[in-house]
Amino acid sequence: MAVACRDLVVRYGDTVAVDGLSFEARAGEVLALLGPNGAGKTSTVETLEGYRRPDGGSVSVLGADPAGDHATVIPRIGVMLQRGGVYPSLGPARVLRLFAGYYDDPEDPESLLDLVGLERVRRTPWRRLSGGEQQRLSLALALVGRPEVVFLDEPTAGVDPEGRLTVRSVIRSLRDRGVCVVLTTHELTEAERLADRVVIVDHGRAVAEGTPAELAAERSDGSIRFSGPAGLDAGALAAAMGAGAGVTETEPGHYRLDPGGLPVPDALAALTTWLAARGTAVTDLRTGASLEEAYLAVTGGERGGDEATGRSGGEAGRRGARGRKGRR
Amino acid sequence: MRPFTTQLRAELAMVFANGETLFLTLGIPVLFLVFFSGVHILPTGTKHPVDFLVPGILALAVMSTAMVAVGIGTGFERGYGVLKRLAATPLGRPRLLGAKLAAVVAIELLQAVVLLAVGLGLGWRLPSNAAGPAAVGAMVLGTAAFGGIGLVLAGTLKPLVNLAVANSLFVVLLLVGGMLVPLAKLPGWLQAVAKALPASALADALHAALGTGGAPTTTDWVVLAVWAVAAPVVAALAFRWE
Fold it and tell me: Does the model's pTM come out above 0.90?
């Protein structure tokens, strides 16, 4: 395993930031630690980067202890801190050349500059770069030593949409070259788009783990969601679906269909037939839950989207999710 | 070796690219030397003020580089997370500190060359019984003492507070450190305090070695040595990298 974290505990005084977290990541895999702010993601990553020793459990990076074997591990990993970390008076080209000088066989600074799209601002002092440009420079600095493992703490935070595309494509190319990427994010869409595997972290614990599709599927209740014009005749649709089916308009224009005893493919066929007969345009149609719903359920967060409102029972939700985690 | 030389070049380049730092380390000392050598308003007690000023301002130069310039720069690097980020590169903390120290030595050498040259131009002459090795030794101890003080401040205070404190300390030590005004001209109680500080010990040692000639006093050596050990030790213990 390129990265392994076993029963990790990190404390700050009396505060427990990480409370028995375990996960592993392989070469050529993108693993996302997904969780709300304060979940312990940064503490975990900083332990893996060798900044602190575990207060409990153990971590291993490329088979070594990142704090104890700092000198052997550091040249083989790339680090992107959550913010800062760059001389404020130096421009991207200078900083990349400086960092390249720390490594035996560095990446070409010019090609990195090009890769993250900072050619245009190559001489602009770091403090005058936009937040997104600073983030992309930090990403490039994480790659300058040709690392085998890369830790990215909130790599897309504060990055504009175009910059996000750059960050995503860089991460994909790292995976394709066999690099192990461990990133943190509190944004579901980023985890869903970037990661092969997601560990949902809450209160310092892994509350669920799997591919984005697996996590969503675990939460699936067999219902079908679709969106279209508001005010469709839910009763008529339910009747057309057959006995036991139920349809509710959760929000204007957003519907939830419980197929009752009907198999999902048959229910889909019946639904689309009914819609086609009325010439109704559908803007969204899917079966099962989204990663967002899975996430909100296991972290006990506020529900949004097509569910009405209300909190799912926080502690109960967490316990339930931990139970499921054993499934892996 | 390559990470070290890379970092040393970067440290020096950043010093020379920073106008404020250059003014502090070269501008102010040269200005003081030229101005007070020509305008005889300081009670230097020597026949030519320049004879007192060259050693005193050499001490000032050590303090400006080791304590103020490096301290303020390091404080900002800490505030911007640079020190934390560099710890996750093969450069590592020991080589980073080594590069900073080498940069300090290089700047001090430049300061010494410039100040001695300007001093010679203003009529200063090295006394026949000058103690060169004692002067170098005092400057080495002074560098350790002031570097340690600068890093204690840089490693514990917020960058802007550090900036203010280091600059204030610089002015206070400049006045009571026997660099421009002989200690003997200060009130008795202030003399007693000042004698325990590294500024006056360094200035006194350099006045002895390069001004009047002869060896610095034992008190100078003891005070300098204590600060040269204590300040870096406190810095090592108190320094917070992030």
Answer: no
